[in-house]
Each structure stands twice: as C-alpha cells, then as structure tokens.
Specification:
Blueprint (H helix, E strand, L loop, with lengths): L17 H12 L3 H14 L4 E7 L5 E6 L9 H4 L11 H5 L10 H6 L3 E7 L6 E5 L5 E4 L4 E7 L6 H4 L5 H18 L4 E6 L2 E6 L12 H16 L1 H5 L1 E7 L11 E8 L11 E5 L2 E2 L3 H10 L12 E7 L4 E2 L10 E2 L2 H17 L82 E2 L13 H6 L4 H6 L18 E6 L3 E6 L2 E6 H17 L1 E2 L10 E11 L2 H9 L1 H6 L3 E6 L2 E8 L7 H14 L2 H20 L9 H13 L13 E5 H7 L5
Parallel strand pairs: 1-7, 11-13
Antiparallel strand pairs: 1-2, 2-6, 3-4, 3-6, 4-5, 7-8, 9-10, 10-13, 11-12, 14-15, 16-20, 17-18, 18-19, 19-24, 21-23, 22-23
Helix pairs in contact: 2-7, 7-8, 10-11, 14-18, 14-19, 15-17
C-alpha cells in the first residue's frame, strides 16, 4: 500500500500547432459571448464608425453580428485579418508604449475564428466593391455592401464543447452582451449604438454629437456626454449627480492638461446597495482598476451611510505613454506609471465637487443638475450646482419676512445634552497655534487658507455668537433677504428644525447638521503645518504594558518603513523580535480600544495606499468621533436665533448635506408635495 508511485513517462518538448495555440489564446480572450462583442465593437470604433449595430441570436451563442460604417478593410488585407498577431494598430515598440486605440494585440479575430464559424464582409471607403471572407475555408468572394465592415460569429465554442457547457442561460448571456455595449456607449456619445436580439430591437442609443469626440469643443463634448449618460443610465442618474471637471496645472506638448478628470459623480443620496453603476474610463477605455476605485470611494468616505455604494461615471485623460494597457489579455486592467498622482487627481476631483453644499441650490435655477433632497423622493424642481469652489455662502435668493417672536418652550432642566451656548470650547484656538503652528484652512470660505491664527479663531465662533451676528447679515430691522435653507419657524420634538424657504418646507436634523459643522471645523483646525512644513502629530498615550503580536514579514517591513507616518498618527510600533511587533503608544482618543487591531489595520492601509491618505483617514475617524460627541443633542430646545444660526452655518459648510456618518441632514418638502397631501387643486 505504501509502494511509491511510478514516475510519469517523459514527454518531449515540442511546438504546439497553430490551431491549438489560437484555442489557448481564445481561453484568455473569449470567456463568453460578451467577450466577443467587446472585441468586435473595439475594432468598429477603431475603424472610425459613427454607427454600430449588434445582432444576436440565443444570447450570442448562435450568432453575433457587428455592423459598422467605418473605413472598411481592403480586399488584399482581408485574408490577413484572421491570422494571429495581425493588426493595423501598432508596428513597433514605440507604438505599443503609446497605444491610443481600443485594440492593438491582433489576436482577437484569430482566437475567435478558432472556436467559432466566422466571416468578414467589408467595403473599404472610396471603393465600389465589397468582399466576403469565410474564416473557415478562406474563400473570398464579391458581395454587395455599403462602406464599412460586418463581422459574423456563428456557433460559439462549437469546436470546444466543454467550454460551451459553462455558459449560462440565453437571457443571462444577453444581459452581459448589452452591458458590454453599454460600457462602450457611455464613452462614445459621438457614435450611435443599436442592439437586436432574435430580430427585435431591444436597445438603441442615438448619436449625440455630429463630430468626433476628440475634435468637439469642451462644452459640446460635456453636453453630449450628459445626454448619453441620461439615455443609457436614465434621467435619474443625471438629476442625482453633479458634474466633475478637474485638470492638472501641468500641460503636455500640445498645450493641453497633462491629466484631466471629468464626468459625473452621484450625490450621496443616490448611493445604491450594489456597485453596479460605477464606470471608470482611461483614455476612452473602460477599466477595472483598484487605484481609480479606491480613489473614488475615498472621496465619498465620510458622506456615505453604512455599506452603500456610490454611483459615478468618471473619465481620465492622460498621456498614453504614462499608462500601460498591455497588462491583461482582455485589456480591462491598466497600470499607471505614477499611480499616486492619478489617485490624488481622481479623489480631489470628486471630493471637491461633492464639497459644495446642495442647500445653496434648493431654489432651483437650471434643470438637469443635482436636486434638493426631498422628503418624498426625487422632486420635480432641479437646480444647477455651481462648479467646485465657486459657491457663495449665505447667498440671498428670495424675499424674506421678518422673524417671528421666539416660541416659548417648556423648561425642562432634566433634558440630556449640552446647551448650544456651552459649545464654545469646541472652537477655541488650539494651544498649538501659539507655538508657531498656523491653521491650514478656514471653514468659512472654500479655497481661502487663513494666513493668521486669528482667521481660524474668527471662523470658529460658537452658535451663540453666530446667532446674534452672522445669522442676520443685513441687521435685525432690515432682514429682507432669504437663504437657501430659509428661516426657522419651529422646533419639532426637540429633534428637528422646521424652516420655510421659497420652495416650501425644510426639515433639518439638528444633531446631524451640527455634527457635520463641528466635524468640518475640527478638520480645518487639525490641518496644522509647522514653519518647516511638517504635519502636526496627533496626541498619543504610552501604554503601561506594550501590546505585542505576531507579525508577518510585510507588517514588520511596513512598520520599519513608516515610522514617521505612524508617529503622526499617534502610534508607536517597533520590532520586539524578528517576527513580533510591539505597540507602545496609541492615539489618546483611542486609548480604550484594541491596540493590536488598530495597529494591524493601520499597517495594512499603509502597505496598500499612500501614507498621506492613511493619515487623513485616521484623523477623520478620530475627529468624527469627537464631533459626534460634541454636537448639540436631541431634546435640546433651541431659540429661533440659534436655529437660524445653524441654518446659515449649513449653507456655508462643505458637505453639509450629510453628517460624517453619511446620514442626511435635511430634506425639502415642496409646496407641490404639500398640496398633494391635502388634495389641493383636484
């Protein structure tokens, strides 16, 4: 029973036949019918097509036909098209390193032809004759056709029946084919797309631009892209998203920005339970890239609730030589030369766009932009969100009536929570500012850093002072202006603030709103820089008994390489032995937590992401906890002046539409919705 197994017979090394090589390549390139659709549509777009039509039978298993009106293929080049590594896209290494087309590997048609019956029908532009090439027999014969190319793929996986058994139902494969075309359609509004299945038109997206996207003026290109996003993803996506348009200050050799990020980012209220509406493109190519996904997610970090997934369509344009698309056979993965630069660009582009509070657009001026959050869902009133960084806090938008006298609430000394008037300690000048540390930013006006410590102190007033000054900028007697969130009229159950604005009724969760205000102010005050440019570290508390844990080689290497970063986070982690790390100090605010778990999570983040990102995330988590405990509590009775001061602060605070836990801070109830509740006008 314990006899050794006989050795396998020796096999000689030999070259594989071309057909088997192509079938192996097909296993990498062709996973299902949608893979064939992607490759053929790529070729159609590279040929300059303005209309692409896809015809399917049995979900693409029996027939995949892609028709285009591009440049076509010359008669002499048709037989070469089915050969392995035959392409018109590249000719040398320099072309490979600066690929600007969708396809370039030259193996898709050969791989597909090895596992299916293929045929190409094409007529080159400027010629009168069209030809049909049979991929199985190699026969070439004249046919009738307009300028362009049609590629037919029949009986997919007929030569590899084992692969065919892994396919799903026709409906599932059809859905994957539609998704593949949809990804192309989102990137090319200058091309029309139509999908037919079993002789029926099931999807059609008309051309939105009458010139190539690369040649169109910026305004026309953005408008066409918005139209295509609305057509493909629905008008709700456009209504519940804001435009992203960011570019680097550096220019390339053509005078254009070296790196540009544009598209649309969904507002936090539009987040979904699944990440099925997250689209990232690099130079027009749909990609799944961890750098881009993490950057976009980081921008939503403190405005999403729970595990909700944001929606977005982001387009990155950069020099093709700075991104390697020859990473994966399906070309769905890329590698950036400077991934940190791309990560920071995408994150800042989305983050800055989401920073402008939607409260300033509650009045609604231009249709098709982000809507005011409605208590009953999407409202019909829409408002244009200004470009990032140009919103004006406390902007008057409508006539305002004089404030009513304060409502007399019952006194209740036993209520839990802090008085708003006692919150001033949250905004006192940080003692560190007296030792040469200067605040890096102010919460009052976006993009205008404070030059003196007094500027930060002025922007950190308690609500009691704001109630008497900034809530009434024109004076108590001359108050004839309104604000986007209107004027406070009452407090409901000590939890909600009711306000009246030009659209109707505004309901504000006062704790969530004040929590965001405190959080943003603390973030601005913690962003301290020393005269030498170093970052102000978080306060730490040494542990009486160091917490040791068994560490992997990666964790030990990360701890040794990021000593300064860990100290900035208030952590002191040092090697205890070759395979053990010791946590000797933790942030003061997290002293009661699990030191080992904290150390492992921070080391894992540092190993995967940029150190500055980890520092900011850790700081934000700590400040979020402080803001939650420091914000005004429920059942705290506020005066009208304090309520109006809170509304004015919301209008001037970034990301004030959600608290730092991602919960909404306010909702709009329009007059139309109120009329519907009481059947008015019926």
């Amino acid at each position: 029973m314990n006899a050794p197994l006989s050795p396998a017979p020796r096999r000689p090394i030999r070259e594989l036949p071309d057909e088997l090589i192509s079938q192996i390549a097909a296993g990498e390139v062709v996973e299902r019918p949608a893979s064939v659709v992607r490759e053929l549509v790529d070729n159609a777009l590279d040929a300059g097509a303005t209309q692409v039509t896809l015809r399917l039978l049995a979900g693409g298993v029996r027939l995949i036909s892609v028709e285009d009106d591009g440049q076509g293929i010359l008669r002499d080049e048709l037989p070469i098209a089915f050969k392995r590594h035959a392409t018109s896209k590249i000719g040398n290494l320099r072309d490979l390193e600066s690929v600007g087309t969708m396809g370039f590997r030259g193996e898709a048609l050969a791989a597909i032809n090895s596992i299916a019956d293929c045929a190409i029908l094409s007529r080159a532009s400027g010629l009168n004759d069209a030809y049909l090439l049979d991929g199985r027999t190699g026969e070439l014969r004249p046919v009738a056709r307009n300028t362009g190319t049609t590629v037919e793929v029949k009986e997919l996986f007929y030569s590899t029946p084992a692969r065919r058994k892994f396919l799903k139902t026709d409906a599932t494969e059809l859905a994957h084919c539609i998704e593949s075309v949809r990804r192309h359609a989102l990137a090319r509004p200058d091309v029309g797309f139509a999908i037919w299945h079993e002789g029926k038109l099931i999807e059609q997206w008309r051309r939105c631009l009458d010139m190539p996207l690369a040649d169109a003026p910026l305004d026309a290109a953005l408008a066409a892209l918005d139209q295509r996003l609305s057509d493909v993803l629905g008008p709700e996506f456009l209504a519940q998203s804001v435009r992203v348009d960011w570019h680097s200050s550096q220019a390339n050799e053509f005078g254009q920005p070296a790196l540009r990020v544009w598209g649309r980012a969904g507002v936090p209220d539009a987040a979904r339970s699944r990440g099925d509406q997250q689209f990232c493109y690099v130079n027009g190519r749909f990609v799944r890239d961890k750098v881009l996904t993490h950057a976009a997610r980081s921008a939503y970090e403190d405005v999403l609730h729970g595990n909700r997934q944001p929606v977005y369509a982001l387009y990155v344009a950069m020099d093709p030589t700075r991104v390697d698309v020859n990473v994966h056979p399906t070309k769905i993965e890329v590698r950036f030369r400077d991934s940190r630069e791309v990560h920071q660009a995408v994150r800042h582009a989305v983050e800055d766009t989401l920073a402008a509070p939607r409260a300033i657009t509650a009045a609604g001026t231009v249709a098709g932009q982000a809507q005011a959050p409605s208590l009953f869902g999407t409202t019909s009133e829409t408002g244009a969100l200004p470009s990032p960084g140009i919103y004006v806090p406390n902007r008057p938008v409508a006539p305002m009536y004089s404030a009513q006298p304060a409502i007399k609430f019952e006194s209740n000394e036993g209520l839990i929570g802090h008085r708003v008037n006692d919150m001033s300690q949250l905004w006192q000048r940080n003692p560190a500012t007296q030792d040469g540390w200067v605040a890096a930013g102010s919460a009052q006006v976006k993009g205008e850093p404070a030059q003196r410590a007094e500027d930060t102190e002025q922007s950190a007033q308690p609500l009691s002072r704001l109630a008497s000054e900034e809530a009434w900028p024109t004076g108590r007697d001359g108050n004839e202006n309104a604000w986007p969130l209107g004027r406070a009229i009452a407090q409901l159950q000590g939890v909600y603030i009711l306000a009246e604005n030009a659209q109707g009724l505004v309901v504000v969760d006062m704790h969530a709103a004040h929590e965001r205000i405190v959080y943003e102010r603390l973030k601005n005050q913690i962003n301290l820089t020393a005269p030498d440019g170093s970052v102000h570290p978080l306060a730490s508390q040494p542990l009486l008994i160091p917490a040791t844990f068994a560490a992997t080689p990666d964790e030990v290497a990360t701890a040794e390489a990021h000593v300064a970063t860990l100290n900035t986070l208030g952590l002191e982690i040092s090697p205890f032995s070759p395979k053990t790390l010791a946590v000797r100090a933790v942030p003061t605010t997290l002293a009661q937590g699990d030191a080992v778990e904290l150390a492992r999570s921070v080391l894992a983040e540092l190993a995967q992401h940029d150190a500055s990102t980890v520092i900011q995330r850790a700081q934000n988590e700590i400040l979020g906890t402080m803001a939650c405990h420091g914000a005004v509590r429920a059942n705290r009775k506020l005066t009208l002046e304090e309520m109006n001061a809170l509304l004015r602060d919301m209008e001037a605070t970034e990301r004030s539409d959600q608290c730092n836990h991602g919960r909404p801070t306010w909702r709009q109830v329009t007059l139309k919705e109120l009329d519907g509740l009481f059947l008015r006008g019926r």
